[in-house]
């Protein structure tokens, strides 16, 4: 019986040959029922269903499925070779045609959980010079490790997405769907799904948590259908082009959550790669100096032994250092940062700005209530300036430092610079042929009295007061 192999299936509609095969299956199942051998009945019924499902009518399909489920109700078919009383070995039947797997994709971790690898610095032939200074390698971002297709983290659940089709005219109750893998130890997270009749593609995420660092190789998936366990290997699925999906597993890394008590920025809360976990809005008057506190919380399960933080901006790098600086002088004193512990870093702001420092697209208009809103005006005078920046933070733990892995996250810092003196209007007076005098009417937008000095006088302006 050459068609007994578990990979046998045909969709040919040949009444004679299909009828003969159906009759053979019927006789085998009848003989097994006479002997009361429930496992053998289940094995023959599984093969009959897998080999002839698209030749059967709906009623016949239902009959075979009911018989199969009744045989596996007490003890499921675990997909192992079955030996009969005569010594014949019946191989396991693997349901690869229903549900039909059309796509398998390993998903990256969310950006703030994704591991990054330190760039390797090649040794040089230069003369060795000793220095007592701390020259630890800086945490610089690089793509995921080149020799692997994907990167996961020990102790963090990874995910794969599969697309399943149900070609049968009856619902499929698929249970205990999980991955088949080798390499590092891992924990499966099986789940159940019911596929409606004649449906697909159904998008399903399968979760798996690596328990060791190293190489994780996914070779297939396992499921239970009609009480039969099927171990579906990619090597048996011609529609899947790869036999193995390789994942690099980094050691357990801490996770850093930045936040503050400041209002969130209404201008930008995400960026393209969704790495921004939080945002803050700073509002200062030009000429004012202020300090703001940003809290960093270790939300991971291991201590943070190294943190680096830098400020960057896509639009305003030329002036960012004049306005914002990070005070990291007490950073080392707070390390190691234990799980669920917090620390503070300080942002120092200086309201220094010239009208020529910013393009018109960075101007927004204020109201006297202090509320800030966008404007389409291109005038540089009497406008509030918006500086958009990011705090880029990298962190790692003891094992991460040894193996050169780290995590990266961002917090958006949007700084609003409000003019402390608003120029309401101006007039020009001719003094003589070569000289003119310009008079400005100014308005104190701040909440304190200001002394405004001109070329020949000093004017004291109270809050919300204007004067020529």
Largest sheet: 7 strands, mixed
Overall number of strands:
28
Helical element count?
A: 5
DSSP strand content: 35-45%
- Proportion of helical residues: 10-25%
Q: Between the first and last Cα atoms, what is the distance in angstroms? A: 106 Å
Mean pLDDT, nearest integer? 79
Roughly how many Å is the radius of gyration?
Answer: 35 Å
Unreliable residue runs: 1-14, 121-147, 355-382
Shape: elongated
Judged by helices, strands and strand pairing, the structural class is mainly beta
Explain this structure to me?
- With about 475 residues, the chain is mainly β.
- Helix content is about 15%, strand content about 40%.
- The chain is built from five helices and 28 strands.
- The strands form seven sheets. Strands 4, 15, 17, 20, 21, 22 and 23 form a seven-stranded mixed β-sheet that branches. Strands 5, 7, 9, 11, 12 and 13 form a six-stranded mixed β-sheet that branches. The protein has a four-stranded antiparallel β-sheet with strand order 3-6-10-8, with no helix packed on it.
- A hairpin with a 2-residue loop joins strand 11 and strand 12.
- Helix 2 (about 40-50) packs antiparallel against helix 3 (about 60-70).
- It is elongated and about 120 Å long.
- Residues about 1-15, about 120-145 and about 355-380 have low confidence and may be disordered.
